[in-house]
Amino acid sequence: MASSSNPKAWIFMFSILPSFLKFQVNVNILLLIILLIEFCSLSLYALGGSIFKIFMNKHLDKINKISALFIFAMALSVLYKV
Predict the structure, then answer these.
(1) Which among 11, 18, 19, 47 is placed 20 to 30 Å from 62, CA to CA?
(2) Alpha-carbon torsion angle 35, 41, 44, 45, nearest 10
(3) 34 burial level (CB within 10 Å; 0-12, 13-18, 19+)
(4) How many whole angstroms from its chain centre is CA 63?
C-alpha cells in the first residue's frame, strides 16, 4: 500500500511509458501489472519475515551464546589491543 500510493513511483512508471501507445488501455494494463508485482513482492517479504521469526524463536539460545562470545572476544581484543 505504501509504495502504490507513492507519487514518485507513479511518476517514474509513467515516465517510462512510451507516448506512442494507446494511453487508456496500456495504463490499465500497466496499473494491473504494477499492482500484481507489488502484491507478490510484499507477500514474499511478509512470508520471509514470518519464516525468520520462527527461525529466531527456535535458535534464540544459540544466537545469544554466539553474540555473547563475539562481544567477549571484542572486549579481549580491546583489552589486549590485538
Answers:
(1) 47
(2) -120
(3) middle
(4) 23
Distance CA 35, CA 6 (A): 12
Q: What does the angle CA 3 – CA 6 – CA 9 come to, to the nearest 5 degrees?
A: 85
Give pLDDT, residue 63. 93
For the chain, give every domain's residue range: 7-80
* SS3 (DSSP) at 4: coil
Cell numbers placing 72: 567477549
Residues shown for the chain = 82
For every one of its 82 residues, what pLDDT tens digit does the chain have, with 9 covering 90 and above? 566 677 777 777 667 666 666 666 677 787 788 788 888 988 999 999 999 999 999 999 999 999 999 999 999 999 998 6
